[in-house]
Amino acid sequence: MEIKKFIACFSFDERKIGSCIPGVYSIHNKYSNKNYIGQGAIISSRFSRSKNCLLRGTHWTEHLQSSFKEYGKEAFEFIIIRKENSPSKRNRLEKYY
Length: 97
What we know:
This protein is α+β, with helices and mostly antiparallel strands and 97 residues long. It is 35% helix and 26% strand. It is built from three helices and four strands. A four-stranded antiparallel sheet has the order 1-4-2-3, with helices on both faces.
């Protein structure tokens, strides 16, 4: 699914992506146009954790890690799709996207 509307987009090299925003996000591969969708109570923490794991080669999603290894960090961007406080709504939105 192509994400046409979003709140913010950050390059992989960004150090900070904002404060404690709860919501749904995407790690987007610009070359393959594929998205890894996730959600969290503090998106900036999820971004930092995912970024560090990808750089170390230890990300919990094997397909994303493999894609990162193949395309390199320049191919990826971090997109905040939607702010959402409710954990149950975040879960539903994560499945929707």
